[in-house]
Design goal:
The protein has 646 residues and is mainly alpha-helical. The chain has helices spanning 11-33, 41-46, 53-63, 67-80, 90-108, 114-121, 124-157, 161-209, 213-222, 241-257, 260-267, 272-304, 321-329, 336-368, 376-403, 408-432, 438-468, 474-480, 484-498, 502-507, 514-533, 549-561, and strands at 573-577, 583-588, 593-599, 606-609, 630-632, 637-639. The protein has a four-stranded antiparallel sheet, with no helix packed on it. Helix 4 packs across helix 14 and helix 7 (124-157) runs antiparallel to helix 16 (408-432). The radius of gyration is 27 Å and the shape is globular. The structure holds pantothenoic acid and sodium ion. The site of pantothenoic acid has 14 residues, from helix 4, helix 12 and helix 16. Interacts with PDZD11. It is a multi-pass membrane protein.
């Protein structure tokens, strides 16, 4: 291994990199000139609402998997071992909950932007607050996403920094602007394949250079890089099972449950079932992505051990490790460095394009359309101009990120928690708490953002000041204390003394808890303010905007415990439903008759109903699902209460 100086790209590397950009552009152009030629907003922003589950799931994964994860995760595993891998546990609930709670609610409301939900459930002001918060979140995130690969590339290969930033930003802006969501999704698919291929190639060559898989295993095991599950309940420890596996669920919910970029994909699928399936399929894709990046960290450790290029001062930051490793290991494999750089840029392009498209959507749908009426052609043109202007704003943001300096993975995940967390809380307040009102929602969101920035910035400053005066840690103590017995005692004392208390304790909260903390703040403050200002009454909540948690749980429990109570009698009388929801059962209680059937009021509003029923008041324990209004065909009389549907 020759560790000296920066390595340079060969012509093949440049060609491979250029091919990636050309291919992505071509996909954009293809969708600009086929189908409806992107002439309607429905096509430009929702891919004609006709997407299938496989491309959607790859695209869903690609959106929040950027160069940040590709170079940040291996650097984390190299430095601190495989504890981070436990974030994979959070994917289970982090995808099941969106699939079965958020998708059904949003899909059935036929939304165009997820913030429209906030207006339906609360009011216009809440919608605008939500939209602005989202724009803020994505613009910062994209800044990190564009800048990260360019910086790493620049530091290690001498590739021009702002040239790379501009190339990514421009290519991405062009194909997003021309090809709409179809181009975004299909470039995501292509770019995901390039990303996986690049990572796999580096891992394979790396393992070979390190002397084979068993050698890698021995080295990482002896180097203490295989972490067992850490069940320490202390919330200030950066990575434990609890911070990653439980705190991570909230992070995942803010990304996969309520983020416009993802919800837009769910909404663009052909059917609700397909949307749910695509959410399920994200699980294996994310696990593969996580595995590849963790393995890369281990292989890197096997090659360098504790002799990291960072310590040898070949590079300046942890985030340059992966590219240094790639250039170092692959210099005798012309084309492979180019493939990996393509992998890195693929990861970022797929993120940036999704962000541009979703930003254009919300600006159009939430901020412009409700206030100015315009023709479809003008609206589409404006959407395209918006995608373009966000491209330029994000390029400017990349420059701001350039001025800050922290580990990119932690920075990105902190942004998700600090801005995405309060947004998650806002949606949870609406979906799970029928009593929450608009004032509660706005003040709750403000409180959540306030706490987020207080803890986030407080923590950042605290870390900055503590890194000036390096704190004692156990390794320092071992080095200076000759006697083993005193080591433990001294370490324990220092640990106890340095455990942060009071406000410092608050500031040292693990960044993996940010999403959970901030979303809970919004819910708690939102509920308190709602109760103080007069909670919303059940009947005043727009139908379909609340997820009936208690009723769903009760009906599940009921079905489990008393399945025989569901009896069906021959249908004879018609019942008409005037409610926009799917009805599976109509339970007419009193004499306990249940009619089974699947009804959608738009397509088939009539359901057969047994005549033996009398319309006596419902016993509360038998309410299943939302209440519906039904119409008796025979008597032409509206019955609003005795019938419920699930
Ligand atoms: C979104 C998660 C946390 C899911 O593992 C992951 O993709 C990740 O760590 N992303 C970091 C941000 C980024 O890659 O842009
Ligand atoms: Na991506």
């Amino acid at each position: 291994m020759d560790p000296s100086g920066p390595k340079y790209f060969t012509i093949i590397d440049y060609v491979i990199f250029a091919l990636l950009l050309v291919a992505s552009m071509s996909i954009g152009l293809y969708y600009a000139f086929t189908g409806g030629r992107q002439s309607t907003t429905r096509e430009f922003l929702f891919a004609d609402r006709n997407m299938k589950c496989l491309p959607l799931s790859l695209s869903l994964m690609a959106t929040f998997q950027s160069a940040v994860a590709v170079i940040g995760t291996p650097a984390e595993v190299y430095a601190n071992g495989t504890q981070y891998w436990f974030i994979g546990c959070s994917y289970i609930l982090g995808l099941l909950i969106p699939a079965h709670i958020f998708i059904p609610v949003f899909y059935r409301l036929h939304l165009t932007s997820v913030y429209q939900y906030l207006e339906l459930r609360f009011c216009k002001a809440v919608r605008i607050c939500g939209t602005v918060t989202f724009i803020f979140q994505m613009v910062i995130y994209v800044g990190v996403g564009i800048y990260t690969p360019a910086l790493a590339l620049n530091a290690v290969t001498g590739f021009h920094l702002w040239g790379a930033v501009l190339a990514t930003g421009l290519v991405c802006t062009v194909y997003t602007t021309l090809g709409g969501l179809k181009a975004v999704v299909w470039t995501d698919v292509f770019q995901t394949i390039v990303m996986f291929t690049g990572q796999l190639a580096v891992i394979i060559v790396g393992v070979q250079q390190a002397g084979g898989p068993s050698e890698v295993w021995v080295k990482v095991r002896d180097g203490g890089r295989i972490s067992g599950i850490d069940l320490n309940p202390d919330p200030t420890v950066r990575h434990t099972f609890w911070t990653l596996g439980v705190g991570g669920v909230f992070l995942m919910l803010s990304l996969y449950g309520v983020n416009q970029a993802q919800v837009q994909r769910y909404l663009s699928s052909r059917t609700e079932k397909e949307a749910v399936m695509s959410c399920y399929m994200v699980f294996p894709c994310l696990q593969v992505a996580l595995m590849l990046s963790c393995l890369m960290g281990l292989v890197m450790y096997a090659c360098y051990g504790n002799n990291s290029p960072l310590e040898q001062q070949y590079i300046k930051s942890k985030d340059q490790m992966v590219l240094y490793f790639v250039m170092d290991m692959l210099q005798n494999f012309p084309g492979l460095p180019g493939l990996f750089v393509a992998c890195l840029f693929s990861a970022s392009l797929s993120t940036i394009s999704s962000a541009f498209n979703s930003l254009a959507t919300v600006t159009m749908v939430d901020l412009i359309k409700p206030h100015y009426s315009m023709t479809e052609a003008r609206a589409t043109l404006l959407s395209k101009m918006l995608a373009l202007s966000y491209g330029i704003i994000c390029l400017a943001m990349a420059y701001v990120v350039h001025l800050m300096n922290s580990s990119v993975l932690q920075a990105a995940l902190s942004i998700f928690g600090m801005v995405g967390g309060p947004l998650l809380g806002l949606f949870c307040l609406g979906i799970f708490f029928p009593c929450a009102n608009s004032i509660g929602a706005v003040i709750g969101l403000a409180a959540g953002l306030l706490v987020a920035f207080w803890v986030g910035i407080g923590g950042f400053l605290a870390r900055m000041s503590s890194s000036v005066v390096p704190p004692f840690n156990s390794t320092n103590t071992v080095a200076v204390t000759p006697d083993n017995i005193t080591i433990t005692a001294v370490t324990a004392v220092i640990d106890a003394a340095s455990r942060p208390v009071g406000l410092d304790g608050f500031y040292s909260l693990s960044y993996m808890w940010y999403s959970a903390l901030n979303s809970s703040t919004v819910v708690v403050i939102g509920l308190i303010i709602s109760f103080m200002t007069g909670p919303t009454k059940g009947d005043d909540v727009a139908s379909g905007t609340v997820y009936p948690v208690v009723r769903t749980a009760r009906s599940l429990l009921y079905k489990l415990m008393q399945p025989s109570a569901w009896c069906t009698s021959p249908p004879e009388q018609k019942v008409r439903c005037y409610h926009d929801c799917t009805i599976k059962y109509i339970a007419a209680l009193g004499d306990f008759t249940v009619v089974k059937g699947l009804v959608h009021p738009k397509t088939n509003p009539v359901i057969n109903y047994s005549p033996s029923c009398r319309f006596t008041p419902v016993r509360p324990s038998f309410i299943f699902g939302t209440q519906i209004k039904i119409f008796l065909m025979k008597s032409k009389r509206y019955m609003t209460h005795p019938y419920t549907a699930i």
